[in-house]
């Protein structure tokens, strides 16, 4: 709804309006929309426009017609930049090459929270598409006034507004006066998807050419004049406290500018990078820590279940149903797993003239800014966080912690940019992991071969300990005056955290889902791609196969029997067809598996089918091929979607077959790629086929996390098909497979 | 002081002899391609080619590199004029976050220089030292295969131009 503009009597505004003439434009645009809104009350604006309703917060047009688009989201390697540029270019009718995109920057872009939860297209894409459409209409209105032609007879084309008689006015000229204060309207005049020339077509990623040729692309590539290199010495365990370190000796080492200690936060700053690394090693070796043995090194899952939990009833529906003729119970578990980003976290901080600037690959620059401001006891307005790409994060990794280190060191050395680079061992041992989880399922099938009851009981820590709040910055917890980690709260449904996707999507009369939220966190945890969905879908989709088997029904047919949502049925059928489900012959050591989920029960639909080869002697399982179908609503970049699903399948395969964080009573012992092996080229499938189902005009459905859960379950189901052994504990490691098949 | 030959040019570098090549490439020469992934020779994000062999620049001190031919991804082509393998990676859109990609390209280039028509098994085995966390493996293999297929089709391997 349009707010009243500031009274024209306000001198500053009057001066602006006299200069810009904007009030005339606003009122000429307004009549139809004002009446429509007056009836209904405040209508919601599309996506993030609701939080940042001014058009020029999102889209600006320069005098040369160049377009700048602003997004509060960040490029994580998921192809977001390319998709947002495409949406803006399509609605504005300009070539994508003329669009520049500015991402997450607390001084320049709207606040869109975190780039997480697969919400970027829904939140930012929707807002940018709508804003671009409205800027187009605004410029057309101006051209109409200028050319004396009705707006309906004008068209935007290639950065101009053109009339039927060929007269044209450039965007640059039309936008010269700006459109500050023009608010977005809820009613949209979006381009008809049938007319798309960019969106939905094969788009080349805008960032790839630089990445294959050594261009500046990452926060790790930032070089500022006078920049110094810093390394930290991280606490060796969560409870560790620093007793002493030989600071004086390290400060005498070549190139060392300063050793910084604040409580148990310890770091060294040097002129050259390798000087900092050498000094860090000496500093670390000299450091004496007080530690205690607090980690749950015995039966992890028993230890977790013994912790106090808050019980949350997520679903409790009862309807009349026939009695069950088969009843099954099964418990599924998952060890801690890590993001293990290929590039350890990095940040650059500069404290100058009372302002702190931090370049960071954090997923949320605004919450980070607030937490750093709190940590340093500075006003947030004096802290400026700018997103620069890191390597893939797959959730909340150590990016915010490195940013906190950069902030601390920058403030200690004003006027010098300080680059903090975490080491591999630090990223592996200090990052927040995907929580260990337990899911206990009970279900019954009636005489008609349909599920009559489905119970899910899940146990998990929080899946989000992100900053907001200095206490969620790891370094802040080790300062001499430490901040305390806030007690985490569960993420409410329908999104959920540990209970994400815990409610089966299937048509079942009796469904009871309870989530046991465990607040105490013996091991550091936070959001890892898909959150609880990876485990819950693994559990539910493994159990679906177990129920199907009891009912004597094919796995795919059994799922279709319980799905009425047409889009769900389509992805299931297409994935099965693409895989060749009907004609496949399983035999000993060679099996097939299928799984389906709709991410969060409200985002993208994804079905995955895999063929697994199992070596009965060694227990080694390999995914030979995978076929998938995905429905993300209106497709913006089909290849981008395919890339995300392919990547999700390969990554989830690695999690599922190989990955578990190890620890002893005191310390994390997964400290490098040898102690936490992941899939390598010999492990990846021969083929991964992804079919993207386009739904023109439908809302964008978040896709980046949709393949994780279905892949895990498909693999578990295929191993069961190949060997007769049902494995329920992730990872489905070679040792566990061997033990299960009795070799 | 040490003279290092990188992409055909000689650079006089003022760095300690035990400095791993990675930091000299990035910090002294401003070359972004080779990346810090682990510093342990386990992930290959730092891969460059020295005298025709793919090596981990994160664990190779510059003291052993005098007089050797060092090639980085910058030497294969530019953003506007990419070399064949870079072109293949662009055409296959073989990147998600892209952090591992420069290392992947150099590892692959070393294979293709030695064997212009490798088999699928050759490629997978050769690429094993390099990690990709995003799961872009299928596209990376397709990009390498594109260039390998050209090698297979050629009657004789094309002479390699010095970089």
Low-confidence stretches of chain B: none
Uncertain runs of chain A: 1-40
Largest sheet of chain B: 5 strands, mixed
| Count of strand segments of chain B | 5
Instruction: Quickly name the level 1 CATH class of the largest domain in chain A.
Output: Alpha Beta
Overall radius of gyration of chain B = 15 Å
In quaternary terms, these chains amount to heterodimer
Tell me the β content of chain B.
Answer: 5-15%
Overall 3D geometry of chain A?
Answer: globular
Largest sheet of chain A: 7 strands, mixed
Structural domain count of chain B:
2
Distance between the termini of chain B: 24 Å
Order of helical and strand elements of chain B: EEHEEEHHHH
Question: Care to give the gist of this entry?
Answer:
The complex is a heterodimer of chains A (743) and B (163). Chain A is α+β, with helices and mostly antiparallel strands. Helix content of chain A is 30%, strand content 21%.
